[in-house]
């Protein structure tokens, strides 16, 4: 069966569009999804001109500075470190031996060019395989995020991002997760290892990042859909 040239062209165009689309999903500054949440405006209370203290100008000297409301900020100390190692070693051996008696026809052995047709059969198979993989990652630093939601059990949903413009490129850190108020330190900080469902992204944009990235054509030929 002959392949239709139009089908081949359409398939190639779809694969090319998929590769280009996957490479264009680059985060940008000012993403509304990571915009800081504004605090809820409290209802204006009745002002008493004769009072010494007014609700709008009160200073809570003994108030806890830990984040607990929507719009409050909290500093997350990044202490991410992962180490993984895996080693595999496999070996198999198989040996088979069998003997077949020579048939006799009309009182004579069956031969071909003077050699017996049947003789003992021997086969041996041996396989050895070994594999080793290791990976290590480390991320340190800090990022201040804001509380975007207070859950029914009191836990805080936090998220935020930090962008740094360095020379010819940008670097950014994005963080999102759930924080338990009891895990927050006295200085209103928390380690990233105490953030539940943490989603931490560290990457960059610009010339330096582009030079360290594989081109779309190379990604196409190194993709899992390539049969070679």
| Total number of beta strands | 10
Unreliable segments (pLDDT under 50, ≥5 consecutive)? none
User: Can you list the strand order of the major beta sheet?
Assistant: 9-1-6-7-8-10
Query: Could you say which structural class the secondary elements and strand pairing correspond to?
Result: mainly beta
The 3D shape can be described as elongated
Number of domains: 2
The biggest sheet amounts to:
6 strands, mixed
Helix content bin: 10-25%
Q: Give me the number of helical elements.
A: 3
What are the key terms here?
mainly beta, 13% helix, six-stranded mixed sheet, 228 residues, two-stranded antiparallel sheet
Please provide a written account of the structure.
- With 228 residues, the protein is mainly beta.
- The protein has two domains: 32-38 and 61-81 and 135-228, no CATH class; 91-132, no CATH class.
- It has three helices and ten strands, in the order H-E-E-E-E-E-E-E-E-E-E-H-H.
- The chain has helices at 5-23, 207-211, 216-221, and strands spanning 73-98, 104-105, 108-109, 111-112, 115-116, 121-150, 156-166, 169-179, 189-191, 196-206.
- The strands form three sheets. The chain has a six-stranded mixed beta sheet with strand order 9-1-6-7-8-10. It has a two-stranded antiparallel ribbon with strand order 2-3.
- The longest helix is centred in the N-terminal third of the chain and has 19 residues, at 5-23.
- It is elongated and about 135 Å long.
Write the topology of this structure:
Elements (H helix, E strand, L loop, with lengths): L4 H19 L49 E26 L5 E2 L2 E2 L1 E2 L2 E2 L4 E30 L5 E11 L2 E11 L9 E3 L4 E11 H5 L4 H6 L7
Parallel strand pairs: 1-9
Antiparallel strand pairs: 1-6, 2-3, 4-5, 6-7, 7-8, 8-10
């Amino acid at each position: 069966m002959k392949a239709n040239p139009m089908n081949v062209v359409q398939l190639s165009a779809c694969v090319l569009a998929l590769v280009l689309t996957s490479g264009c999903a680059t985060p940008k500054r000012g993403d509304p999804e990571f915009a800081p949440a504004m605090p809820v405006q409290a209802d204006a209370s009745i002002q008493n001109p004769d009072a010494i203290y007014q609700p709008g100008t009160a200073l809570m000297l003994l108030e806890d500075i830990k984040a607990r409301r929507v719009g409050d900020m909290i500093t997350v100390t990044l202490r991410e470190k992962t180490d993984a190692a895996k080693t595999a070693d496999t070996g198999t051996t198989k040996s088979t031996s069998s003997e077949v008696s020579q048939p006799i026809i009309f009182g004579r052995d069956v031969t071909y060019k003077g050699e017996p047709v049947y003789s003992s059969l021997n086969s041996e198979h041996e396989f050895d395989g070994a594999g080793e993989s290791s990976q290590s990652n480390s991320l340190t630093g800090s990022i201040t995020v804001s509380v975007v939601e207070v859950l029914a059990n009191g836990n805080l949903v936090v998220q935020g991002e930090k962008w740094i413009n360095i020379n010819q490129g940008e670097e950014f850190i994005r963080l999102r997760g759930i924080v338990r108020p009891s895990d927050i330190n006295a200085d209103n900080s928390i380690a990233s290892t105490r953030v539940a469902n943490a989603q931490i992204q560290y990457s960059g944009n610009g010339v330096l990042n582009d030079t360290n990235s594989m081109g779309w054509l190379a990604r196409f030929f190194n993709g899992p859909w390539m049969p070679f």
